[in-house]
Amino acid sequence: MADPKGFLNTPRRLPPRRPVAERVRDWREVEEPGGLLPIVGAQAGRCMDCGIPFCHRGCPLGNLVPEWNDLVARGDWRRASERLHATDNFPEFTGRLCPAPCESACVLAINQPAVTIENVERAIADRAWESGWVTPKPPERLSGRTVAVIGSGPAGLAAAQQLTRAGHTVAVYERADRPGGLLRYGIPEFKMEKRHLDRRLAQMRAEGTRFRTGVGVGTDVDAAELRTRYDALVVAVGATAWRELAVPGRELAGIHQAMEYLPLANRVREGDFDRPPITAEGRHVVIVGGGDTGADCLGTVLRQGAASVTQLDIHARPGTERPGDQPWPVHAKVYRMSAAHEEARELGVSPAAEVDARLFSAATLRFEGPGPGAEGPPGAVRALRLVGVDADGRPEPGSERVLRADLVLLALGFSGPERDTGLVDQLGLEVDARGALARDEGFATGREGVFVAGDAGRGQSLVVWAIAEGRSAAAAVDRHLAGSTALPAPVTPADRPLVV
User: Fold this and answer.
1) What is the set of domains in the chain, with CATH numbers?
2) Hey, which bits of 353-471 come out as E strands?
3) Which of 51, 159, 269, 490 has the fewest CB neighbours in a 10 Å radius?
């Protein structure tokens, strides 16, 4: 321990965020530039170096949290970077995007605010890049074996980097025009600027990983034929089949899935459009869904200049304290305010909401178009009728209300991989009861040499689980090709987050 009394004498501090009025006028990340480094050493010193560090189990990557906390507290940033990269291929991603289940599992969190593990992780990663310590690590020799990875999200990228470094020749196939998957087109710029993704991709290219963009496996290329060209194939296409909302009026114009809306906003940042084809500018917006994707929509809507915005969450508003039925060390459901919710609260653009932008315990009954003589194009949504619900999801009598809405965004989560691309059928893959692709304990499918990694097999999950699965699937592929492997495998397909 760098400071044996750090957890007693140092309070938890988070880096300052830029003023709301400033940051909603641009798309840069919300924290003050340079605001983390002055405080991170003392925050790392709060780590107790526990005899049994539950943060290891809270994180599926098994990040060596106490070790790099101690190194940061002592100012040994380079060794901290080495320990961090030993378990995480992309800490600049997880340090920005992960909800930090490791902090929920921090032993200090039993009776005090947890160590700011995620912020320390991000500071280490950023310091490593700025100092030039993150360099390409090409293999010393090639194995002569080839692997195709389908999908360039975090699972596919992690698998590809591990297999390339093991000496295999790896090609990553991505149906979009740029690699990155949801990291590129799903995550808004204000949560993770794409320069972080681009420099990691440049490292992978320098190591030897090849990228084939604009190629849809199953549509542009037959998946079965692709299998014959490679010694192994990793399916890491994610869980992108979005859930629908089957209520009257769904056919009205102006109702879009979140993943129809968010990629267009990101494409503006990439320079593809001057103005997104779907924009919230000047419109009254309702976001249906209370999760992270809904919050991503909220921050994007605010930056596009919506007239008003309300986010509906069918669940009751959680409390601020850990509930008794979700004890430490599980990642409890408590009231959390994202940067986007903070912005909505301060800007006051959600007059219908209870707090920040959210209406809790609210279910959509139907969408309504313009009435006779009303302004607006025919067939376009003009309002959303909702009803309050109890803890069991039953409507509360007398709780119906109408929200003005000329843009509705559906952020209801995902049910598994898309089934209409041809990939599943061409490879003869099985789909389990959850809608995910079936695999055994070694990430292998019933098709020889075909493996599944990430959300495609696990179902909708977190970026940290995707990277962990990519690393583990890479170890399985390496063992299949070489007979043995030295690659780490932090998780199995059966592993699940800490739950009660």
Assistant:
1) 5-131 (1.10.1060.10), 146-240+415-482 (3.50.50.60), 244-412 (3.50.50.60)
2) 358-360, 362-368, 383-388, 401-404, 407-410, 450-452
3) 51
